[in-house]
Amino acid sequence: SSSSLIVSFGEMLIDFVPTVSGVSLAEAPGFLKAPGGAPANVAIAVARLGGKAAFVGKLGDDEFGHMLAGILKENGVSADGINFDQGARTALAFVTLRADGEREFMFYRNPSADMLLRPDELNLELIRSAKVFHYGSISLIVEPCRSAHLEAMKAAKEAGALLSYDPNLRLPLWPSPEEAREQIMSIWDKAEVIKVSDVELEFLTGSDKIDDESALSLWHPNLKLLLVTLGEHGCRYYTKSFRGAVDAFHVNTVDTTGAGDAFVGALLGKLVDDQSVLEDEPRLREILKFANACGAITTTKKGAIPALPTESEALNLLKG
Ligand code: ADP
């Protein structure tokens, strides 16, 4: 029913990935087009697992924008919250893993369509029908997208949605680390569910310690569930009344892109129908095990969207 809708707000873009790995961007002989953007990945993760999802954001009215909208629809995600900008183009990212193991990013965003979403363009009817509103746009810093972001959060909250946040830190996109921290923290205390990676935890606390104390230093009174994902080490969880860790699954990892988004999509797909698990540790642990399985499967295939699991794939891994 429409009461189980998860709305994911943010950007969708195309990652250009070199056809040969271990070379710099300048040396790449060619690129594969991989659709991505964390909020869009989350919406598709939800839908592929059988849930109801909508994506809210702006694309360019160009070949890439229409290709991305088509990918959402093919995957069963509602495109009713998508706007097409008549002037600016769809965002592009060039991402490569160099021989020295460092990730190199280059973005086409000057400005791209996603950054130009205006508050008056939002499909508020769709946003107000969300039971879970997930956000984590990398365009938080720029207007008018920032105002649209805040407006969408407010509308969802007023209509009773559970708010979920993943900061999706991509430092090269921010003018400075200080500004990134400030902007992330400006929307931090609105979220009732927050998922950070170990890297984001270090960045936000300014300490290289990953432990309960550093995680809980980020706690705020509205928070119901804080998650720290640790890649092959699984995740840690914190609520008002309990905390703990859930181990990851051992799989043959080839590309970790999208693992965190699969994890979030799996979790939200369960929370949308029953928030009482937030007060029930054994049941929450079961859900986090499922979310870990979904993250693990996503690492076994190249790319984010093509690698997101179906429910039966996840259940197979859980059965062992
Ligand atoms: P992000 O993609 O946001 O950095 P993580 O890499 O921590 O997030 O991945 C999210 C979840 O996916 C982890 O908590 C874990 O359960 C699973 N996962 C990620 N990498 C691996 C891996 N190499 N092996 C098994 N599971 C993984």
UniProtKB/TrEMBL annotation:
This is Fructokinase-4. It comes from Citrus sinensis.
